[in-house]
Amino acid sequence: MKTRYVTRTLAVAAATLAVAALGVPAAEAATGTITGIGGKCVDVTDGNSANGTRVQLWSCNGGAAQQWTVADDGSIRALGKCLDVAGASTLNGAKVQVYDCNGSGAQRWTASAGRLVNAGSGKCLDATGVSSADGTPLQIWSCSTGANQQWTLPSTGTTPPGGPCPTGPFGNPLPSSNPTATKIKDGYNFLEGPVWDAASQTLLLTDMHDGSGPQNVQSSDILRFTPSTNTFATFIANAGSNGLALSRDGKSVIAATHDQRSVSAYDLVTRQRTTLAADYQGHLFNSPNDVTVGADGTVYFTDPDFQRADRPDQMSGHTDVFRVKDGVVSLIDDSIREPNGIELSPDGRTLYVGGNATGKIYRYPVDADGSTGPRSDFASLGGTDGGTVDCAGNVYQITFSDGKIHVFSPSGQALGTISAGRNATNAAFGGPDGRTLYITSGNPSAGGDTGNYGLYSIRLNVPGWPY
């Protein structure tokens, strides 16, 4: 399951979001919000353009005090003034303010690995106290990898149309051939479908419960994990979801909803549910499992029968891969036994599907209208579950039984594996620079919601594709 990087770019990277030190011409200067920890916006206090007005974090509201222009001379401007280090100080904790533009080093900034480095001091733009609270003042501080120094700039238009990936070339995505992810927190019954929301800098994921009721259907909730505070909270109770993705307009989370044997969209503001696909030619789906979204809004999903429970089969024994566009559901493939993870390549031209019960990962060419061509084998891998793709086009496919994430190059060459827990289910890229891989893994329930699933993470060398 993939993410809401839709309305903003990936966290700044030197190759794509730039100031003068990176050689971006004036024609590519961009204006918009700069977001940081907690998804908050860089804001000029009270919209006051007077010299010396403090710059702070504030909830994004689209106001003029939050509209920043990344100029070709290295300056970052709002309200006719420049982002400035008070007194041209080089000390940790020096105030960041707006001031008349003067071209000094105190007003020149370079985007580097998600940070904004001040030319005059060599220090990084920093949210004081690692806080995301409204009114948190900004300062300069020695550069680190902390979330309070990660910033997302307005798009310069140098990213691919419809997507947030920086320009390559890319190297090996793995820090070693067989790294191990670190557990963040466990204690959940059965986690699935993570997806990163870049606007709020949070991760959404599904927690599924054991079956109940006369048909033994599994209920589930959508949780929200906030890395800056290391906290989990229920975002949508009784969502009925499995795999998740985010719409290309960034307004809703798309969910494979096995509770109603459908595909749904939940509005991220109102949390209201809308049905996107209820059936195919009048027949109810089995139990939609995993989902991804194309640049034109086409939704692709898999329909194994894992969560159909005791409800009757209306698919004549088939487990299928479907797409839905403009409300019309089309069959892609009905010959894969238990299709599961589904991912799109960064250019949107290849669709990958894991055959859980076939021992294969498959690929389909995707046409301009979102339709797919003939299937071919991509790699051999048994017991596949969810997966994702990075910006280099490498494919990450999970095998449930051993807690492994298998990484393949776009040509199908095995690059290595990542270990996480015992029974891994899914993965998604996130974090301010898109290089954190989040993985759901753990021990399934033996009945009575006795499962123990956790969220894991690992830093990789290549940012991820969120869809």
What can you see in these coordinates?
Belongs to the SMP-30/CGR1 family. It comes from Kutzneria kofuensis. By secondary structure, the chain is mainly beta. The chain has strands at residues 30-32, 41-44, 55-58, 68-70, 76-78, 81-85, 96-99, 109-112, 115-118, 124-127, 138-141, 182-188, 191-197, 202-212, 217-226, 231-236, 241-246, 252-257, 262-267, 273-277, 291-293, 299-303, 320-325, 328-333, 339-344, 350-355, 360-365, 376-380, 384-390, 395-399, 404-408, 414-419, 423-430, 436-443, 452-459, 464-465. The chain has a 5-stranded antiparallel beta sheet with strand order 1-4-5-6-7, with no helix packed on it. The protein has a 5-stranded antiparallel beta sheet with strand order 32-31-30-29-36, with no helix packed on it. A 4-stranded antiparallel beta sheet has the order 12-35-34-33, with no helix packed on it. A hairpin with a 4-residue loop joins strand 26 and strand 27 (360-365).
